[in-house]
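Study this pair:
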Amino acid sequence: MATYTVDWFMTLDGFGSGPEGYWGKDGPELREQRARTYADEDQTLVFGANTYRAMLRFSPAADDPSHSPLNAARKIVISRTLEEPLTWANSTLIAEDALDAVPRLKSESPVPLRSHGSITMNRALLVAGLVDRLELMVFPVITGDSGADPLFADLPDIDLELVDSRLYDGRMQQLVYVPTVR
């Protein structure tokens, strides 16, 4: 059975988005890590409709080689609001609820599944116990006033077993957990 990894960027106070990309804390090690992550041919990326739309706006830039790994990656989009054909290369639409689709995908996929962003969808999957790994990239900023998309508000209690960690560009901390819903 394939694993399902949720890959979220967040502020120290738990917000998943803010007024600017990467909260203005981007760096070369982070960019390289993202390119390696998306270039991994031994995985399939899974997006919800909103993340698909957001990433589609900047990722197909043919003149920017840093987007090539993401463009080339196999992508599944779980959405009942999008329609075929999807315009982003290597994207397949699954028009059903994620709580039904992900268990089936995990049982059928020969490679691990990775979902970046897709906060609403992945919160539901986390609560349902369908997330095998939770990878958090914590940016060194508190966005109490400007933060949006709180990642953990109103979730049940979830135990986290830390299985890996790494520092990027001397300021972003990646924490990798195995979550267990209590």
Remarks:
- Strands lie at 4-11, 15-17, 44-48, 75-78, 91-94, 113-116, 133-139, 148-150, 158-168, 172-181.
- Residues 28-39 form the longest helix (12 residues).
- The chain is about 25% helix and 30% strand.
